[in-house]
Structure formats: C-alpha cells, structure tokens
Design goal:
The chain is an alpha/beta fold. It has 6 helices and 6 strands; from the N terminus they run E-H-E-H-H-E-H-E-H-E-E-H. The chain has a 6-stranded parallel beta sheet with strand order 3-2-1-4-5-6, sandwiched between helices. The record marks 51, 101 as: Stabilizes the phosphoryl group.
C-alpha cells in the first residue's frame, strides 16, 4: 500500500531563516509550524524535512552539529505533541551529487524507503530549487513567499500551505 507525504524544506518553511542555523539555539520555529505538521499527520500524511545543508562542506558546521540541530527540532515538536517522520539532508555545496536540490534525490530516496506515492504527495519550499526538486520527483508543489509560475500553488506560509493541501484531499 502506498502512502502520501508532504516534504518540507527546512529554513524559511518551518523556521525563521533571517540568520543561519549553525547550532541548536539558532533554530527558531515559526509559531504555526507544530500545529501545521500536526494537521498533516492527522490527515494521514507522512511528513519529512528535505534540506540542503552545504554549510557542512563549506566548514561552517559539522554533521554532528546538524544532528544536534535536528534533535533539538524533534524535541520542540514532541513538546508540542507532534513529530516528523524523518529528515534527509544534503551536506554538499560544490561537490556534484544527486541529493542537492534542485535534484530530487532526497525525495526519491525517502519515497522508495517509505513506499510513498509521489503523485499524491507535496513538496513545500520557499525557493525555486524546492519547486524544481518536487516537480522532478513527481510531487505537487507549493511555493512560499514570492510567486513562482512553476509551482502548483503559491502562498505566504506553511499554515496557508497546509490549509490548501487539506482542501485538496
């Protein structure tokens, strides 16, 4: 049985990205993040984070630092009675790979591992590369912030994106 999922970019989608997130205390979730994820989970969606983290290759932080940031994220969500189903990240910046968005590698890997039907799944991001990755993977897409004609839908924030997704099902 295939499942449906929502893939979320991290910075600018679930957390404020006005400054770089290089340590756990830099991660500031938007006030609507936990409730938005909770709504998706209640509607039967798996929820994943797919995030480019080229700062690892560039030496701004380590994979151990990133794990601490993501552990902190999961602790915050758990305190708000919700959770995500997994996190995929690309540590590359200059090195060629199949995982760095706009390539769909992270989404495709999660889809295969969790038996996700990408035709009924969504990619939500705040940059054109998120939309490109979602389209390349076969997902419907939502762009946050500035309009993108390639996205299936555009809106202001994750709360509005989740409202739209839930109206479509």
């Amino acid at each position: 049985m295939s499942k449906k999922a929502v893939f979320l970019d991290r910075d600018g989608v679930i957390n404020d990205n006005s400054r770089h997130v290089n340590k756990p205390e830099d991660l500031i979730l938007y006030p609507w993040t936990a409730s938005s994820i909770q709504q998706l989970k209640k509607a039967g969606y798996l929820v994943f984070i797919v995030t480019n983290q080229g700062g690892i290759e560039m030496g701004y932080f380590t994979e151990k630092d990133l794990k601490a940031i993501h552990d902190h994220l999961e602790t915050i969500l758990k305190a708000d009675n919700t959770c995500i189903d997994g996190i995929a990240y690309c540590p590359h910046f200059h090195q060629p790979c199949d995982c760095r968005k706009p390539k769909p590698g992270m989404i495709l890997t999660l889809a295969k591992k969790h038996r996700i039907d990408l035709k009924v799944s969504w990619m939500v991001g705040d940059r054109d590369i998120d939309i490109q990755a979602g389209k390349a993977a076969g997902c419907r897409t939502i762009k946050l912030g500035k309009q993108d004609p390639n996205a299936d839908y555009c809106c202001k924030n994750l709360r509005q994106a989740v409202d739209y997704i839930l109206r479509q099902t």
